[in-house]
Amino acid sequence: MTQKEISEKIKENFPNAEIKIIDKKQFSVLVDKEQIIPVLAFLQNIDFKELAILTAVDWIDENQFEIVYNVFSYSHYQQILVKARIDRNNPKIQSVINLWDIAKTYERDVHEFFGIEFIGNDELKPFFLHNWLDLPPMRKDFDSLAYSNEVYGKFKEERDK
Amino acid sequence: MVLEMAHGTFACATFNRDFIRGVDMLITSRNDLRDNGWERILNYFRKKSMWMLHYCTGCGAMELPPTMTSRWDMERFGIGPMATPRQADLLLVTGYLSIKSLKRVIYTYEQMQDPKWLIAFGSCPLNGGIYYDSYTVINRLALYLPIDLSIEGCMPRPEAVINGFNTLMKGIEKGTAVGYKKYKENYEWYKKNQDAILNRTKPVFDSGVKS
Amino acid sequence: MNELLTFLGEEDRYKKYELFFGPNHPGMNGNFSYIITVEGHTIKRVDPDPGQLHRGFEKLVEHRLWMQNISLIPRICVPEPDINELVYSRCIEKLMGVEIPDRAKYIRTIVLEMARISAFLLGFSAIGGSTGLYTASHWTIGDRDYLLDLFEWLTGARVYHMYIIPGGVRRDLPEGWIEKLEETVDYIEKRLSEYDRLIYNNPVIVQRLKGLAPITQEDAVKYGITGPNLRATGIKYDTRKAVPYAAYEYLDFDIPVQSDGDGLARAIQRREEFEISISLIRQAIKKMPKKGKVRLDMPNPLKFRVPKGEVYVKVESARGEHGYYIVSDGDTKPFRMAVRGGSYTAGLVYARKALVGMRIEDVALWMATMDVCAPDFDR
Q1: How confident is the model at residue A124 (pLDDT cuts 50, 70, 90)?
Q2: Structural domain of A58
Q3: Is position A154 within any domain?
Q4: Which residue of B has its CA nearest to A116?
Q5: What's domain C2-378's superfamily in CATH?
Q6: B32-46, C53-67, C163-177, C265-279: least confidently modelled range
Q7: Which residue of B90, C191, C358, C379 is most buried, as measured by CB atoms within 10 A?
Q8: How confident is the model at residue B30, as a pLDDT?
């Protein structure tokens, strides 16, 4: 299937989806957070079998998190960025571990760095960080430089003395 | 060939001279025997056989395979890789240390037996380097463990690494590379610094409440 | 004493135990750890414990200018750093909608294939190292240095090159470099037959690798295994062909595939791709425009702004699909960059399934054949 056919098919089944073409082999689909599992299941049925990356973007000005599911098909050679926005004050979304086993690890990763809850994933334990008690570090309001200076010592000032 | 032989005789000569000087001290007094002379004899032999722990913490590890294998071959200086910390003398901190690996490096360093030396690679263990504003990379290794030698470069080339090893050998012979003694003497201070970042009980910033 | 032994035997306390495989373990490549529950000699459960190399790149790039990041990102993947520069540069070029000069495309291809060869050579040495065949390590790493010397001549650095930049490459090829490269490639091709005798036709290695953790096609797709490991199962997919970048669309090459998907197939797949890389370098040298610009005129790096948008760019690395997802909000700094490391899926996810039922001594070999590289998923 070409890009046009796929995007038309998505539009047919999910009239609310916002489709944006990025280039010849890539486009993004923005859907509501309730629709994320139906959309991904639909894409998986038309041979989008590889979940390349699951990540999040912190749109702090709009007070929203954007979850990005990046799927790829080995037969159509198309990359689709499926996105859903959730409220930043109550960051919860349904987990997709029933569709992809591998999502368990990606969601654990995103949970650690953004503090987003994935309902249904029981493996949201600490992963990369050691004894982390502060704000999740990838949030935009977490100041990495201030944290580093506070915890590991300000080196620049000491050097000037 | 000739050069090699000449080098051999030279090494032999220094060996004899040092050895005799060591024996002189041995005879002079019992104190010297314990504190100085015996140590100097030991140091002379220690520097000739150093076992490097097979544990690489960061990017600098990439230049160790060339250093170990045929092109630069560090074994000609008497340095070889060793698998367990308990039988190793050298700990290489090859680059930045994230807080998670700092914990493991401290364990490893404390498992190693005296005498032991720690070499820091690059600028990251000195001041954080390019990761000065990272939330997981420590800025100064010297606060948590004693550094015997720092090698400059990002990452240090194999020549620099071997030059560093040679400098360390000189330091060992002179008795200036004594990081492990410093660590013993100032153990409380080091432990306090380590605890402050490893066993944190409350968040750093007030806003930091994990959701 | 006898009482104690009987007690321990009855309790079976030492039959089942937990083993920290890494970070301080000679079989582990990289600063990374698997916490393995072992019963006797067989692995029952695996928990990856990453984070020892975590530096928070995704956060650091948000605080640096677009051009400053060029010096930061090669450090994401240490054995093959050039792919990072390429992916990052291509993200910017796609967002800006510019096309780089033809000569730059070919130079990028040559540099990438050289990096791939040096990564494969390291992979061969890892196979040698984890089977006790240290001759292989000495040979391959010694030969890799010829490539590093060329890199040093071209870019000034042995490992982190920072040569590929948005808009092309940093500078043109020096005089005499191409001739030296041809010589080196000829030499390395000659050495291949010796590697065959040493590694791939060595009965010890063949016996160890045969039947080692075979991957099925369904599992490979389901778990997101990419690159040579995917092709070793028989799926004919290569990003260089499917979503071409640099000058790959002008070059003629065929993708080899294996069928078994076990350790031996994965090793042989890498060995065959090695030849493809050599032929790609030769073709690129032949087809490269002799003169021309190697770099577009880009705006002032201090005021460099990238238009609003988002893009995911991936390349074929020696370990698989290596991609960046970049979001720009039109500012002088990236808004968000997410890294998909080439061995994220193999090392963190698939390992939990593949290692179960294996013997302890095969873990290091499994990591060597899957080419698990800790820095690219620790980020």
Answers
A1: confident
A2: 3-128
A3: no
A4: B211
A5: Cytochrome-c3 Hydrogenase, chain B (1.10.645.10)
A6: B32-46
A7: C379
A8: 55
Q: What pLDDT, on the 0 to 100 scale, is given for residue C186?
A: 92
User: Residue A53: what are its φ and ψ, rounded to 5°?
Assistant: -160, 145
pLDDT of residue C97: 86
Q: What is the CATH number of the domain that holds A97?
A: 3.30.460.80
Residues on chain A bordering chain C, Cβ-to-Cβ distance under 8 angstroms = 22-23, 25-26, 28, 49-53, 55, 57-58, 68, 70, 74, 77, 79, 81, 100-102, 104-105, 113, 127-130, 137-138, 140, 142, 144-145
Check residue B208 and give its pLDDT: 53
- The whole-angstrom separation of Cα C215 and Cα C258 is 12
Q: Pairing relation of β-strands C309-317 and C320-328?
A: antiparallel
Going across the sheet that includes A18-23, the strands are A18-23, A26-31, A79-87, A64-72, A50-59
Residue C123 has what pLDDT? 87
Residue A4 has a CB neighbour count (10 Å cut-off) of 10
Nearest CA-CA partner of B91 in B75, B77, B68, B110: B110
Domain ranges of chain C: 2-378
CA-CA distances (angstroms) from residue A21 to A79, A130, C294?
11, 40, 30
Return d(Cα A52, Cα C315) in angstroms, integer: 12
Distance CA B94, CA B105 (A): 11
Phi, psi of A23 (to 5 degrees): -155, -165
Q: Reply yes or no on whether the pLDDT at A25 is more than 60.
A: yes
Instruction: Give strand ranges (E) for C245-333.
Output: 309-317, 320-328
Q: Is the per-residue pLDDT at B22 higher than 50?
A: no
* C-alpha triplet C351, C355, C357: angle, nearest 5°: 155
Mean pLDDT of B38-58: 81
Q: Which residues of C touch B131 (CB under 8 A)?
A: 55, 60
pLDDT, position C236: 87
Chain mean position to CA B43? 15
Q: How many CB atoms lie within 10 A of CB B161?
A: 26
CB B156 within 8 A of CB B121: yes
Q: What is the mean pLDDT of the segment spanning A147-159?
A: 70
Q: What is the percentage of chain C residues whose pLDDT exceeds 70?
A: 96
Numbered residues of chain C with Cβ closer than 8 Å to any chain B Cβ: 23-26, 30-31, 51-56, 59-60, 63, 71-72, 75, 78-79, 122, 125, 137-139, 141-142, 144-145, 148, 158-160, 375
Nearest CB to B133: which of A136, A144, A153? A144
Model confidence band, residue A157 (pLDDT cutoffs 50, 70, 90): low
Residue A108 forms part of a structural domain: yes
Sheet holding C34-39, edge to edge: C16-21, C34-39, C42-48
Q: What interface predicted TM-score (ipTM) does this complex get?
A: 0.88
Q: Given CB atoms, is A150 within the 8 Å cutoff of chain B?
A: yes
Please tell me the total count of domains within chain A. Answer: 1
Residue type, C287: K
The pair of structure tokens assigned to C367 is: 């990591």
- Residues 6+ away with beta carbon under 8 Å from C52: B57, B98, B100, B101, B104, C23, C31, C32, C33, C374, C378
A127 near B CB under 8 A: no
Cross-chain CB nearest to C323 (options A25, A53, A142): A53
C60 at the A interface (CB within 8 A)? yes
Report residue B79's pLDDT band, with 50, 70 and 90 as the boundaries.
confident
Residue keyed to tokens 């002032």: C300
Mean pLDDT calculated for residue range A143-160: 72
User: pLDDT category, C187, cuts 50, 70, 90?
Assistant: very high
What's the start-to-end Cα distance of chain B, in Å?
Answer: 70
Distance CA(C264)–CA(C258), nearest Å, equals 10
Give the model's pLDDT for residue C185. Answer: 92
pTM of the model: 0.86
* Chain B residue nearest residue C77, CA to CA: B59
